Amino acid sequence: MRKTVLLSVVALLVLSVALIQPAVAQTTTLRVLVHQNPPMVEFMEAFNQQFQERHPEIVVDMSVVNAGDLSTVTQTRLSANDIDVIDMFGFSNAAQPYMTDVDPPNWQQLIDAGLLMDITDQPFVANYDDATIRDAGTYNDKVYQINLGRVSYSGIFYNQDLFTANNVIVPTTWSELVQACETFVAANIPCMTAGGKDGWPIFVGAYGLIGSLYADQAGLVEGLWTGTITWNDEKALEMWSRMQIYTRDMIESGASGIAGDAAPGRFASGAVAMFPGGTWYAPAIESAEPEFEWGYIPFPGSENAEDNQYLFGKYDQGWAVAANTPNAEAAMTYLAEFSAPENYQLFVNAVGFIPTQPTAQLDTHLGEEVAPYLANFRVGYEQYWVAPRGVGQYANPWASYFQPFGTFDDPQALADTVQADLQSGLDVAGS
Amino acid sequence: MTYHFGRGRSRWLPYLLLLPGVIAYFVIALGPSMATTVYSFTDATGLPGAPVNWVGLDNYDEFLFLGQAARDNLNAVGRTLVFCFFVTTIQFTLGLLVAIILNQKLRGRNFFRTLYFMPVILGAVIQGLIWSLFLYPLGGPLAKFLAVFGARSEFLGAQPTEAFAWVIVVQIWANMGTTMIIFLAGLQTISKEYYEAASSDGANRWQVFANVTWPLLTPSVNTNLLLNVIGSLQAWQLFLVLLGYRNGTQVLGYLIYATGFGQTSGSVTSSFRQGYAAAASIIMFILVLVIGMSVQYVLRRREARILE
Q1: Which of A25, A102, A263, A316 is the most exposed place for a label (fewest CB within 10 A)?
Q2: Measured between alpha carbons, how far is A252 from B25 in angstroms, rounded to an integer?
């Protein structure tokens, strides 16, 4: 009798496992890779939760990496066939016909190697505006990425209370910006902060200065490649001189120790008057101090206020799918749901991107701030730039070459070094 | 002398026992090294499916001679040698000093041995995080200490020379424990009788060290010197964690990593160039080999002289 009961229990257990097994086996784990951007990561975690509730057969396994490591991790995980949906940057700077003997950018290498999926025929692609799909998602007439938004990196966040309390007008020209900083520094208030520990926030913070002097950024890149523009001509020297003032007199001392994702918090604390940076910082500022009153203006790098009406920026992140994913159906479901207008609107609200879906609105405080300049939005220099082989390490228009972040303290010496480093690569390309 | 394991099939037993190790060595060490050598003559991107073309010596030519980039590369080689010199010298000396002190009968010496060795077990990321916080220029502990004297520094964000010096400090802090432990082990093998004999001969502390401790520590000295030289020539993780890709601070190891994984160019999306990075790796291998073998040659001659 005992034996029979025992055998029955074992049989029941085996049967239960057998019945449960198919349900477990049907679950798909969708591996998603994103870069570290706190508001976006927070949104994606909430979105993934909802997505999994709606699609219990799919489990989303999202990995977050630092922006600087994204291309490395993308390469290694694609090579290992260990990723399904990838967050990609910079799908825009393809090599131009006048650029000779250059290495194609990494997104192009990934497509040429057959590692990204052609998503041209996916219905959700139609949710995005045609210009975005064409400029930041298409290669050889096929769509490989849906771009999730544009950002401006050429503006300055400013502390409205500090401006009012110190009777400083919102600057519209370079002289007014210099005057504003002098007023704040005299009042013992640091003028600007930046996430100098990460390096790039220092030079990206001054991209607006380049834009206000070279409004045609695509033309600037072509001019540099063809030699009609040099980084040590008279106009460039004006740019370098202002960059030196920006790094030496405007950015607060100690900024080199502030991490990129800590800088919005420091600005929101009210300790500094301004924060040059991209629109993607807006949610972090609001999150750090919801009551904080701030505004956003284009970097006034020119003495002519008309030249300072442009916002320069880039197409930011986009979704691409691994060509060899075994979870293609789940990946398409994921992207289709993300691209649904109501979800995309929530994403834009959370992250602060300028929308790439025509039905979406940037109805946030940032949206109000950038609205006057949106008609003047232009893709920035670094989105067009592809460096020739053999260029030296200083062949970029980066303010961070100046002290205290770099070694230079003479604009002319730096201008000559930058041009020499660039020319060296151009000579190689020419030969 | 020939060892026999028996007759017939038993003769093959030693080779059979060696086989797993040999296979592991080929798969983990020699195979990838040979593949890297072959890669260095190609334009490989490291992406599966991407075409790979034979480019001969082009990658070497580009690394050593092409434009200003070659000058930057050679500067990185020079910086690597400077890094190696300071790290080896200071780490070796400090490790020896601490080992001698902690070899005495001191109260709590086990605690201090653990304390000095602890950084070794932390990964580069944790080591970097600790020092980034310690050196935070806006209110970090060292910044506050300097402020007492009216001084300030940007530390890791300072001029490249100062930032580079801080990486040397962190590298020494992170690895000195290993040097110390090897010396401690060496010191504990020296018989007390030698010290008693020297003492009864009236030798002072320096004479004891110079004529007893130092010669008998030769195996530990050789091991530590080689490990320090090779370890510092190959260092790159702390540069990545503490400084990132920053002009004037790159060493060869970091340059290779940054090149191979597309982190060097001014463009937002730089390229994957693993063929080129492989060529740079081979150049580093040659550098390590030449310096390592030279050091070993000198050390062996010294050891032979002492043993004579």
Answers
A1: A25
A2: 53
Bridge partners for A408 per DSSP: A402
Q: Nearest chain B Cα to A103, which residue? A: B271
Q: Which H or E run contains B207? A: helix B205-208
Task: Judge contact between A106 and A134, C-beta under 8 A.
Answer: no
Q: Looking at residue B266, what is its pLDDT? A: 40
* Boundaries of domain holding A111: 27-151+315-378
Domain residue spans of chain B: 60-307
Comparing CA positions, the residue from B272, B202, B307, B299 lying closest to residue B39 is B272
Q: Which residues contact A2 (CB under 8 A, 6 or more apart)?
A: none
Domain boundary among A361, A378, A395: A378
Q: Mean pLDDT for each 10-residue chunk of chain B (308 residues)?
A: 66 89 93 94 88 94 93 94 97 97 92 95 93 90 93 87 95 97 96 93 93 93 94 93 87 87 53 88 94 92 82
Nearest to B97 by CA among B159, B172, B40: B172
Residues in chain A with pLDDT < 70?
1-25
> Distance (Å, rounded) from C-alpha B225 to C-alpha A420?
41
Mutation site, A35, A78, A89, A106, interface B, largest B CB count within 10 A: A106
The pLDDT tens digits for A99-117 are 988 888 888 889 989 999 9
Does the beta-carbon distance from A391 to B155 stay under 8 Å?
no
Q: Where are the alpha helices (DSSP H) in A187-279?
A: 200-204, 207-213, 217-226, 234-245, 263-268
How many whole angstroms separate alpha carbon A150 and alpha carbon A157?
17
How far is residue A137's CA from residue A106's CA, in Å, rounded to a whole number? 14
The CATH number of the domain holding residue A77 is 3.40.190.10
Query: Under an 8 A CB cutoff, do A109 and B140 touch?
Result: no
Whether A333 and A422 share a structural domain: no
Task: Looking at the structure, tell me whether residues A243 and A297 fall in a common domain.
Answer: yes
As a dihedral over the C-alpha atoms of residue A44, residue A45, residue A49, residue A51, rounded to 10 degrees, the angle is 20
Residues A410 and A355 in one domain: no
Residues 166-225 of B with CB under 8 A from A: none
- Sort residue A353 into left (φ over 0), alpha (ψ -120 to 50) or beta: beta
Give yes or no for a contact between A34 and A347, defined as CB atoms under 8 angstroms apart. no
A305-360 tens-digit pLDDT: 999 999 999 888 999 999 999 999 999 999 999 999 999 999 998 988 889 999 99
Q: Do A104 and A166 belong to one domain? A: no
Say which residue the tokens 């405007």 belong to. A250
Task: Please report how many Cα atoms fall inside a 13 Å half-sphere around the Cα of residue A57, on the Cβ side.
Answer: 10
Nearest chain A residue to B133 by CA: give it. Answer: A257
SS3 at position A114: coil
A187 belongs to a structural domain: yes
The domain over range B60-307 is classified in CATH as 1.10.3720.10: yes
Asked whether A211 and A152 are in contact (CB, 8 A), the reply is no
**What's the ipTM?**
0.78
Using CA atoms in the order A356, A357, A363, A365, what is the torsion angle rounded to 10 degrees? -10
Mean pLDDT, chain B, rounded, equals 90
| Contact by Cβ (8 Å): A356, A150 | yes
Residue A250: partners with Cβ closer than 8 Å, 6 or more residues away:
A177, A181, A191, A192, A274
DSSP A402: B
End-to-end CA distance of chain A: 93
Question: Can you give the pLDDT at residue A103?
Answer: 81
Count of structural domains, chain A:
2
Alpha-carbon span A346 to A160, nearest angstrom: 27
